[in-house]
Structure formats: C-alpha cells, structure tokens
Amino acid sequence: MSDNITFIGVGAIGLPVAARIAEAGHRVTGVDPRPEAAERAAGTRIESMVTNMSEVDELATVVVMVATPTQLTGLVDDALEQDLNGSGWIIMSTVGPDSVRTEAERLQAAGAMVIDSPVSGDIPGTGTGSLTLFTSGAPSDIEALGDVLDAVGPRNVVGERIGEGQAFKLVNQHLCAIHIAAAAEALNLADRMGLDPEKALRAVENGGAGSRMLSDRGPRMLALGQIEVHNSIGIFVKDAGMVVHTGHRCRAQVPLAEAANQRYRLAADMDLLTEDDSQVIRTYR
C-alpha cells in the first residue's frame, strides 16, 4: 500500500497515533475540522493538516479515528464522492459492530479494502506503540496494511469478519467500565468507613481484589488538584452506553454494565465529560 496516509480524527488519542505512524516513515496528512487540531499537530512529524477530506488529493490509505457511528457515516458519505478503488481503510474508531459492517460494505462496494481495528489504551500509551488493537478483516487486507498497524501497536488479529474487532472491543470496554466504577465505589466506601483510602488501595491492590483499573486509576482517584487526562469520562459515557445497547440487542443480561453506565451518565450531568475517567469517583462524594 501507499506510504501516503490520510488520518481522519486528530483528537486526544488520534493525534499521538497519527504522529506515531508518521514517525514510522509514512507521510501523514491529518484531517480534522477543529482549528486547534492543526496547532497541536505543529510540533509533530505529521506533514500537513486540512479541515476537510475533500482537500486531500488522493485517498490511498485512510486511518479513521472519529468518535461516533454518525460521524463515521458522514465521513463515508463524503469519501464516496471520490475514487476509492484500490484504497485501504483502517477503522480504529469504537463505533460498534453494526456501524462498522454497514460502512465497510459501502466502502468495499466502491473498491476499497477495509480493516476493522478499534484501539484500546490511554493517551500516554499512544506515544510508545503500546495500544491494544482488536483487528479483524481479510488476512490479505491485514497483511497489506500491516505496516501501519505495526506502528500503532502489536498485531492482535481476532477474526476475519468485519465487526469482530468491534465486538471484542465492546467486551473490553464492558470490563473496563465496570472495573473503573467499582474501584471508585470501593475507595469511597473505605473513606466513608473512616479508613485511609490510600492505605486501603495499597492493602488490596495486590491481592484477589486487585485489578489493572484499580492500580492505574486508584492513585488518580485519590490525588488532589488538577488530574492529567489519560482517558476522558466522555469515552465511557459513549462506550458503556454502546455496551448496554448491544447487550440488549443480542439479549445478553448486562446489569453491571447498566449500573456503570448510569454512573458515567451522572458524571456527565456533573459536567465531568472532559475530566479523566478516574474522576467518576466524584459522583460518590
């Protein structure tokens, strides 16, 4: 595939991922309508920034990291106005199985190859190539676009059908959403019982009650002052909601995900959408 990469969605996670791909030797053009996106990209190896996909001369290899299924649909609407025959698309957004299947079918009908490869990780991890990719698609397509995937994180091929990557990501987000909310609830319980929450965290994190989310988010839950954003609460408002919606559609019982989803929605009502997801603990105070 071409070394000319069009990267769509240069946000908090998208920017360091696009920069990582550029550092691997690809010529990256970023596409993002927000004026501040170009300012943030100025200190990276991203070659150029534009505000609309129509400003890109040729869509050879396209990496997509938009936020919602609606945005993905609009993006594909615009892309279909151009010649997509022979282009390669990597959809790294978390948009759910139904959305990615629908839009992949439209792209494939126009002659494009498509890989479903949502990513999991936090902002610091994007700069080290340590994101987890849940990749699905035709083996030949994955191989053709493999050098771009390898720049982002280790290949983690979970299936050959478009949509399987999204499904695996939803299982991942189900667990993450619950574990973060559970960590917040437990540390608040410790505090309300008169315990030192920091001591409680250290006492339990390496035992049977430990989890990666407890050890990673716990210290930020207990920190004072402005907390650096690694992943925003807004991500889990969207993703936990998607988990619940998908669970209902496939008739899976997801009561724990529903409870976690309600907690993130409460955080949104408290104007915490852009805060680090560890700050869901503030909904308990």
- Please state the structural category: alpha/beta
End-to-end gap: 52 Å
Q: What is the CATH architecture descriptor of the largest domain?
A: 3-Layer(aba) Sandwich
Tally of separate domains: 2
CATH topology term of the largest domain: Rossmann fold
Ranges where pLDDT stays below 50 over 5 or more residues in a row are: none
Average pLDDT figure: 94
**Main β-sheet, spatial strand arrangement:** 3-2-1-4-5-6
The arrangement of helices and strands along the chain is EHEHEEHEHEEHEEHHEHHHHH
Number of DSSP E strands: 10
- What is the overall number of helices? 12
Into which percent range does the helicity of residues fall?
Answer: 40-55%
Round the Cα radius of gyration to an integer and report it: 20 Å
CATH superfamily of the largest domain, called what?
NAD(P)-binding Rossmann-like Domain
- Major sheet summary line: 6 strands, parallel
Classified by CATH, the class of the largest domain is: Alpha Beta
| Proportion of strand residues | 5-15%
Shape: globular
